[in-house]
Every structure is written in structure tokens, then in C-alpha cells.
Amino acid sequence: MGSNEFEHEAEKNSIPVINRPLDPEEFRRQGHLVIDFIADYYKNVEKYPVRSQVEPGYLCKRLPESAPYNPEPIETILQDVQQHIVPGITHWQSPNYFAYYPNSGSTASFLGEMLCSGFNVVGFNWVSSPAATELENIVMDWLGEMLELPKSFLFSGNGGGAIQGTTCEAILCTLTAARDQTLRKIGTENIGKLVVYGSDQTHSALQKAAHIAGIDAKNFRAVKTSKSSSFCLSAETLQATINSDIEDGLIPLFLCATIGTTGIAAVDPLQPLCEVTKRYGIWVHIDAAYAGSACICPEFRHFLDGIENADSFSFNAHKWFFTTLDCCCLWVKNPSALIKSLSTNPEYLRNKASDTKKVVDYKDWQITLSRRFRALKLWLLLRSYGVGNLRNFLRSHVKMAKVFEELVRSDKRFEVVAPRNFSMVCFKVSASSSLLKHENDDNEKEKKSNEVTETLLEKINASGKACMTHAVVGGMYVIRVSIGASLTEEKHVVGTWKVIQQHLDAILSS
Question: Which SUPFAM superfamilies match (predicted)?
Fold first, then answer.
């Protein structure tokens, strides 16, 4: 008997431990174990190195080469998660995690995610699960009202909102709608003349979306910013760039303005930028992936002044709004522009509700057909904490960022390199510091400052006591401390500052 025949015979004679893939009582038992495991993880998360310390390829050395033939108990699997998976995790929910932008979570969002996974509906159109569509309509209007968006962005005002996966998807969808809207007027043969604008601080998602949407790479503009303007996109520079393109026979199409840029959380001035774009019929998308959350607080809402002249707006609830990944909230003034570009109507999806045009079919608002019931986690979040508490959670992070900024400014060896608009502080080892007194040339001082700052960041992350990331702006290598993890308290911020000072002391003494 050959090996395959032997395995086949063994398969016929084996008795599986679990008879059904979905057994309610077995789910109940295993679910309790998993929730206890996760609860213990959060209880002990501070004990782990914040950034994973493993080497590439570590997991292949620990796990079997092939999948098990027979079932294994959940207890054994969870033991392996603890022993093999946890060491390879960078702990985004650690109170000492300050890298990138926050990916904050909450009990309400976790439970909403469980409900979403538990129902496991595929809400591509209204009829496929009416509650999934209608709850999303309601929640997106709730959020829009919290942000004081113009009524034209809400379902109640003939606009509307959809939950995308990420900002990349939101930008691609709106750029595609803008492209097709323009090409219907000028002819598809002129796609090579369309120009897309952002700043040199705009997220790379814009360039990726432009590439996917078929915009000529030569027609992508990353307009230069400078330290003198706090690395914001100026209306004057945008106007000059547009003038040059028009003189060359090109057609301005799309501007992505940012509220809280990736590098240093700079804020592009919406009012003057929109005054420029409206002269040319340019579609304006506002990317507030990180900082949009803060705009539910009245003291930060002014950053959105001018939004009434934009065409679309998005922010990531999965960043600084205590919602699990993925959850990007996108609003558009003109849903029909999205629908004309993204809709498909095969016979197998035809239904009476869609034919009435009185329902939202979200498949026509996004790239994919299938979609998850993401609105559940936002609904649970808003109901479980309320607007007042959500504002106070955000304010507590901003307050901690102010504390950290004051600590940095109190040490003359460092400098804060950009205005702190929200809960992120960007700093570096100062080129004018007495530490670099042996360097005579200013350029050499800046170069040495960058080297020391980069080494400092590497040492901190390697220690496992905190995790941060960097940006390069205006030729400066800067460390970003982004405060927004749900478990972070002021003691963690102060403790991290001490870690920074200790590592700089060690670098200088060596």
C-alpha cells in the first residue's frame, strides 16, 4: 500500500475530535478561554518588549513544516500562541508604544468586532443584510454631526458616508470618481493630461492611488513645503504649480489636503487651498486619517474650517478613535460620482429594493464587492462611551503630549522641530547643542545631529522599553512620539522621557 493510500485509509478510520466546525456549546467553551487569554495579555502587556526582538525567519524554526493531520485542542494552540506568536508581536496596544500613529482599541470595539465576526454577514447591497447598510447610514451621520460636517456630506443632506478599509481605499475611490467625472467632459483619450496634487508631506497613498487610477507618473505633483511654513501646503505654491501645468496644456484634477500629515502632523490650510481649487473645478479630498478624531472636540474643530468647499473627507477611526482595524470613515458630497465609477450590476445581484433606487448598495461605493459589518463596532463605541467621554479620552492624550513637549524643551540638548497641533511631538538632538561644539561647519553640525538622533532612536527601540518611529523633514532626521494608545498614562510618558535621556547619556559617554 502506497503512502497516499495509507493516509486515505487512516482518514476513513479516524474519529475527529470536533464533529462540526460551528458548534454553539464548543464555541462558548473555547470563546471563554480566548477572552481570558486576551484579557491576561492586556493585564501583562507592559512586561513584553514593546518592539518585537525576534530575527527574520524565527517562526519557521519554531513551528512544524506542515499542518496537523488530526485536530488539536484549543488549550494547546493557545499555549503555542503564548510561546511562539507573542514574542513576534510588536505591541501596538502597549502603554509605551509611541510609533507611527496610534492604533487604539477599546473593550466596546473588541466586542463590536466579535459581533461582526459572529454574524459574518456579507453586506454588499441592502438586501443582503438590511441592518448592516442602515446601521452604517445612521452611524456615519452620527459621526458627521459630531464633526460638524456640512449637511451636504450627510445622508440627511443628499451626501453620505461609507466605511472603507483604509485611507488608501478612500483616496483611490474618490480619485477614480474625480477622474471619470472629468473624462466624461473632455474624453477618455485625454487621461494623460490629468494632474494630481499633494504636498511633499502627503501620505504615499495618494501616489499609489494615482498610479492605480492610470494617472501618468509625470503628472503627479508633490508640492514642496518648508520649515518656514511649518511644512504645510501653501495656497501660493499650489497656485504657481497649477499655473505652470495649465501653461503646459495639462488639466488639474485632484488635490489631497491633509489634516495631520504622516511625518509631523502638519495641517494644510483648507480655506485658502479651496479658494484656489474652485477656480479650476479640482476635486478636493481631505485626508484627516489621524487628526480627524480630535475634531469632535470643539477646540480642534477649527482645523476643518473650509471643509464646506471640499468634495470628500475621510478619517481613520482605527487610528485615534478607539476602534479596531480596519475602519476608515469616508464622506462624499456627491455619492452619484462614486456610484457611476464603481458600480457593477450583474444579473445575480438584481433585486427589487435596488431597482427602486431608494436604498444604499455599498458595493457601489468601494473597490471590493464583499464588505464586513464594520458599523457594529462604531455603534457600540459611541453608545458605550458617549461623545463626552470620547472627547475627554482624546484630550487626555493631548495633555500628555503637552507634558512631553515641555520635558523636551527643558533639556537644551534637544529641540522640538514642528508645532505640536495634536498629540504628537517631533524632536531631535539639537544641532546647536553644546554636544556638537567640536563641529565648526553648520552643515556638519546638522549631519552629526541627524546621526546622533538616528542612533538614539535605534537604541531606544532595541531596549524594548518604548517604541517610536522617525521622519525626515527639511533634511532633518526627527523622532516622532505619538501618544494615543488606550492604556497610556502620564507616568508612561514621563518614564519614556527618562529612557530617552538615559540612552542619550550613554551615547555621549561612549
Answer: PLP-dependent transferases
